[in-house]
Amino acid sequence: MVSILKISKKIINTRRCKILMEIQTCDKVFVNNLSEKLKVSPLTIRRDLQVLEDNGFVERFYGGAKFKEEKLCLREKEDYIDSIAKIASRYIEDNDVIFVNSSKITLKMLEYIHSKNVNVITNNANAVLINNPNISVILTGGELNINKKSLTGEFAIKTLNNIVATKCFLGCSGITTNGFTSIIPQEAYINECMLKRCVGNVFILAETSKIGREYNFLSAPINMINTLITDASPSDELINIQKKGIKIIYSH
User: What is the CATH number of the domain that holds 60?
Assistant: First the structure.
């Protein structure tokens, strides 16, 4: 009976994770579409969305759900992302070879790099749009996620395994004392590979909304991180992360 319950719980958690992934890539989801896609009843989907809403991950609306919006106007949110990105760029030096993942905040950082001859290796397809003469962008290649504009899969992993970086700058879906996590498993694999192939400092860039949140797919335990750059105010979660030996830089 115990093992049946464990299997049942695993199935439920896997389904809810798939729902979160769907919202991540499509911005919003609808009950009937999810019911058909995941082959469960609309009632089951509504229950899943209720649990996700109760845990602060989504905001429900009639017939569906979307990610819970921060209580900030878009301009304020962009300003916070911008301030984190600017601070992160100061830690990049001439001739660095850096790994950058597909997060919005690390993409923004590329605009502010003033060091010379920086090589950026990334799975963010939008990086080709950055107009910065100080950097050379190398895309990993791989399977393209149309909505997120990220590159993942075996081809991307193979590319990363042939490169050694001097520093690593990663965004995340959530970070706690356990480590940093991703909603999308393929992204977690990319993050993990980047960390393993980095010989220097690892920087996590995380807005307030990411602090204290934990998702199903672990990119790395907390002891693999050197520095966290955030716009969040000091909190018990951040103090506990700092106690793990992580340097925390506040952008405000």
Answer: 1.10.10.10
pLDDT tens profile 161-207: 999 999 999 999 999 999 999 988 899 999 999 999 999 999 999 99
Residue with tokens 């010379």: 116
122 and 169 Cβ atoms separated by less than 8 Å: no
Mean pLDDT of 14-42: 85
CA 40 to chain centre: 28
Contact 108, 82 (CB under 8 A): yes
SS3 249: strand
Does the reported pTM lie above 0.90? no
Let me know whether 59 and 83 are in one domain.
no
Judge if 36 and 156 occupy the same domain.
no
From CA 93, how far away is CA 162, in angstroms rounded?
22
**CA separation for the pair 76, 117 (Å, rounded):** 32
